[in-house]
Amino acid sequence: MECIVVSHTSAVRGARAERCSYAAVTWHPLDKREQRRVLASCAPNKIAIDFEELVRKGFWQGTEGEELHILMSDPSHVSRKSGLRCHVISKPLPAGAIMRVDAGLYCCSPAFATLLYSEGRSLPEVYALVMELLGIYSLPAEATLPIAWGGVWPDFTDRHNVEQEHCRCEPAVTMRELRAVAAWATGRRYATFRRAVEYALSGSASPMETVMAGMFSIPMRWGGFNLRALPQGGIFLNHRIDFSPRAVRMASGIPYAVCDLYIPAAGSDLEYNGGYHEQESVRVRDGQRNNGLKGMGVKVLVINRDQMIDIVALEAIAQSIYDDANQRFRYQVAGYRARQLALLNGLRAGIGLPPV
């Protein structure tokens, strides 16, 4: 295969395929000098591109209307062939923006691919992708094109569904990497990416945790409940609390709890209980765990599947958390309910679910 640098949506798809196949991104970052050389030599010839190899690597699906996104630095190398979408960036890229996948095959790093993918998209959609890459889960590669095209995945998903298929894996990016890319990305075209990085949290364990975190942490002007502004750091995802000896006894021997969304100022743990938690054995363990948290002085609030599409219920829970943190809950924007619905539906769209 001749030298190509996969970018944008194609790179996002490849990152998901890599994470689901190997539980981590195993590509190798290039230094700035090598990046310049590779981008300058990228001159795609559709006939010479091994699309079967791209399918095996997860960058290409072969769907009707699909385009292979390719990045280069020389405008004279742009190809107008159908099925190829060439993008030109001539200024030097941030360190590690390009990664080596295989001989002659390069790809934008997950952080830089997300930056390029973000252009023209809404804050909730970009936030959902940033949270996924910072988290310990990945959507399947097959979900990428339907989501990018504004659709639903899988096709039969209905509006009452609040959960999405995903695989467990290591984080694909760090906050440091994202902030470095955000610092490079000046100008209005990348403002949404910079804002998504500003609001993002590390450690999300599932698509629904990402939706829950977005609704409760994003500022009110975007439709969230702004728990991130509370004292003591706002909120923390998957925060571990080690139990005292008495709390261990209260929890029937469970030594610690990992809180879905921990709010230290309120002494509260916000838990999402999906279908998995409806199993009898899981309910028993959840009850023991919650007793242990009570022994540590932590209040547990549980959100079920129905409440994750009920904005009024989410609002009441947020108000309770503000009360426990001795903070005033007050809207400072007009049309807050419409903003909340737009945020919820945008976050759902970002993980392939239909609007409520």
UniProtKB/TrEMBL annotation:
Source domain of life is: Bacteria
Q: What is this protein called?
A: DUF559 domain-containing protein
Originating organism: Enorma massiliensis
